[in-house]
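Write out the 3D structure for:
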Amino acid sequence: MTLIVFPAIDLKAGQVVRLAEGDMDRATVYGDDPAAQAMIFASQGAEYLHVVDLDGAFAGASVNGEAVASIVSQFPGHVQLGGGIRDRTAIEKWFDMGVSRVVIGTAALENPELVRDAARDFPGGIVVAVDAKDGMVATRGWADVSTVEVVDMARRFEDAGVAALLFTDVGRDGMLKGCNVQATVDLARAVRIPVIASGGVAGIGEIHVLALHARDGIEGVITGRALYDGRLDLAAALSVAAAA
């Protein structure tokens, strides 16, 4: 099994940004042309992208639709999209636009039947975001923390046919503290659904370790700030992921 490396493009007011610990007031802007950034990643070998409509995550509906459309129309690979996708209309809209996968977080906790129905109707297209703050599921752009444990949330969808779980340790996201590899592997071993690692990837070492755990159910890893800050070379990361 080859680990999928997802370069991240987070959108805020049409710009490419990265947040620190999910805080919208702690955003670093890396560019104002998301589609151009997508093509840079493509030129470095990326076949997958992870795109987040940050404004949408807080608003509960698409805000950066124009930017997403431009990315999807130009990027030659697969686009995985999250942020404010909370009803059937939104899910269908993004698939019609050409998005390969949609990531559902808040609605997965509050309306699990939406996820189950979508996973049935769009096989391989639904990813459930399991965002953790101190082991509990965080929702609404990570602004709210529930009383549901991450593993319990994940197990609710084991028989639903979802493509993957996207696990993020919120406290590490955008902080370059290092991905919470152990928690990610523990989750992958606890469920039968493939898991995508996210949050705080700092360098090539974590890509290598996660790739070694592909057999445990780690499907992929999302990386953002390390790429933008030059701490991680995408081509090298893709090579390490493929070689493990």
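Residues 2 and 159 are 24 Å apart (CA to CA).
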